[in-house]
Amino acid sequence: MNMLYPLKFKPVFKEKIWGGQKVKTRLGLDFSPLPNCGEVWALSGVPGYQTEIINGFLQGNELNEILEIYMDELVGEKVYEKYQNEFPVLIKFIDANDYLSVQVHPDDALAARRKIGNGKSEMWYILDAEPNAELISGFNREMDPRTFLEYLHQKKLKEILNVEKVKKGDIFNIPAGRIHALGPGILLAEIQQTSDITYRIYDWDRRDDQGNPRTLHTDEALEAIDFHLPESVCTRVHEHINKTTMLVNSPHFITSLLSFDQMIEKDYEGLDSFVALVGVAGNATVKMDSDPVSIKPGEVVLLPAITERATFIPHPAGKILEVHIDVN
After folding, report:
1. Number of domains within the chain
2. Is residue 158 part of a domain?
3. CATH code for the domain of 217
4. Edge-to-edge strand list for the sheet holding 180-182
5. How confident is the model at residue 238, as a pLDDT?
6. Domain check: are 95 and 170 in the same one?
7. Rounded (to 5) percent helix, strand, coil in the chain
8. Pairwise CA distance, residues 50 & 38, whole Å
9. What parts of the chain have a pLDDT lower than 70?
């Protein structure tokens, strides 16, 4: 069996009622066929939306196909023991040209009870934000289901939601159960559990292209919502140039930021996990023991778990999110 190498993927584009043009104009993914692309699934093992390898001898294979063949060599021994043939993270780029619905995702326990797969915790790294851009994360006061429903039915929901101004480089951790919504003018990278379960609570009275109100999931959402005030909402980190900066450390994924303007060599031996490299700014080349692979904003390169060392070469500077899993 041939040795694994850094893998690049053909993204999956998804049209959204709130999507815009920044996938093309800012990320340079001008091969998107959609007029209002809201999401780019850059690394996905979700059935029906799997990303396809575009480089090397594995070109043309989908992510889950090579996972079934290479197993722990691709994702790590303990990661494979836990997740088997399901790739555990989904990585997207999102362009919010309008408000997304106010929504919530179930946690693992609720998802298991409802037999709907995994829960969905996620994080956002803000790539770009227009002046006065904002998003919703959690409540602005202690809340209970009865009061929440009163505000919802009176169409005053935003009065009890925590609204945050957004700047480029901000990090938002959105654990399962936290009510949230992106506002217009935001371009971001999203790291999340592999799940496509969303409970839509309020959609600003929008209608779909057929003129029908969009489906809401109020009853399903009630059991999923965490009604307590969040301990933290937005994180702003001081980037350490040519060093790794930790952003989010959760049981579902660990995300760090590598910002560099000189060649960097990193040691991944003993990590026992894949490393997904997410391009967020600048341009760079990644090299293992194979041919170099380029990475730019809007792209993901997957380093297999057998990677011991990798070299990062900026052109002339790069900024990359590193995503891996620790199941210890």
Report:
1. 2
2. yes
3. 2.60.120.10
4. 161-165, 134-139, 180-182, 102-104, 199-202
5. 83
6. yes
7. 15, 40, 45
8. 17
9. 1
Q: Which domain holds residue 269?
A: 243-324
Helix (H) or strand (E) holding 64: helix 63-70
Distance CA 235, CA 228 (A): 19
Strands (E), 1-154: 7-10, 12-20, 37-43, 52-53, 89-96, 102-104, 122-129, 134-139
Block residue for tokens 């002046």: 131
Which residue from 225, 218, 172, 196 is spatially nearest to 119, judged by alpha carbons? Answer: 196
The count of other CB atoms within 10 Å of the CB of residue 315 is: 12
Beta bridge mates, 267: 309
Token duo for residue 190: 């999203």
Mean pLDDT of the chain: 94
Decide if 1 is inside a domain.
no
Establish whether 113 is a catalytic residue: no
Clarify whether residues 181 and 313 are in a common domain.
no
- Exposed, middle or buried by CB within 10 Å (0-12, 13-18, 19+), for 90? buried
Tell me the sheet residues that pair with 180: 103, 137
Residue tagged active-site, from 200, 207, 214, 309: 200
**Percent of the chain whose predicted confidence (pLDDT) is above 90:** 87
Among candidate residues 237, 224, 67, the one with its CA nearest the CA of residue 167: 237
> Which positions ≥6 away from 103 have C-beta within 8 Å?
179, 180, 181, 198, 199, 200, 201, 221
What is the predicted pLDDT for the residue at 1? 57
pTM above 0.85, yes or no: yes
Q: Residue 231 has what pLDDT? A: 80
